[in-house]
Amino acid sequence: MNLTQTREVTTEIIKEAGELLKKYFRTGSFTSHSKGGTDFATQADDEIDLFLREKLQKAFPKTKFLTEENAPKDFTSFKDENDVWIIDPIDGTTNFSRDDNHFAISVGLVDKGTTKLGIVYLPTEEDGKLYFAQEDKDGAYCNTTSIHVSERTDLQTISVGFDWSWANEDRKKTLRWLETIVDKIRQPRSLGSASADLCLVAEGRLDGYVNWGLKPWDVAGAVIILQKAGGKITTTTGIPWTVFDPDIVATNGKLHDILLPFLKT
Hints:
Layout lengths: L2 H25 L4 E5 L2 E4 H17 L4 E4 L16 E8 L1 H5 L6 E8 L2 E9 L6 E6 L5 E3 L2 E3 L11 E4 L5 H14 L5 E3 L4 H9 L5 E4 L4 H4 L3 H6 L3 E3 L13 E4 L4 H4 L6
Parallel strand pairs: 3-4, 10-11, 10-12
Antiparallel strand pairs: 1-2, 4-5, 5-6, 6-7, 7-8, 8-9, 12-14, 13-14
């Protein structure tokens, strides 16, 4: 696949989806349904998911899909697949449902667990923020502006993002980590959208991001953006990471080895 042409076509599809999502957000008129426990989805999640699959299938007939709203319970077989579109129609559904505009449409084209092309679109933030990066090009961008991670190395000056998993055991890991680091850093921040938060690390507005309970669709679009912006990603134990790993530590690179010892929960 020509990744530049693929990105251009996909960007237009995502922007169309963003217009649909903005209508739901502005009116607040949508239904919700439980996905088990405290997890849930909205009518908008389902509609955007279907819209993206149909449009991308038409544009790229030979590709496969793994999306949040249509994923099988066991999606491990996708680890070895080529050219899989991994999609989160609304990453940050709780924010979306509570009139908080920090949410994103996340789309990643993934090859055996590694993202080749990533696009993350925040349709209601600052007149629309579209982040992107691709495997065969240097750099990462927000709209037309090149972005880069921060240069911070002093723990007392950094802001680190994190989120609360839907699983209680993963939430307990987050609590233990916070207990060890909360008095060492300037600001821990829980903003509620993994893909959007990874993009904040990519543009230097956060210095790191940590999570123990992710799914591939939470991060597939954003990870290449962070990496191409100069950041580093591993598991919380420091080993190489793929989009199918549930735990992640993502930093500006300079902080990585400094933060890892605090993640032994």
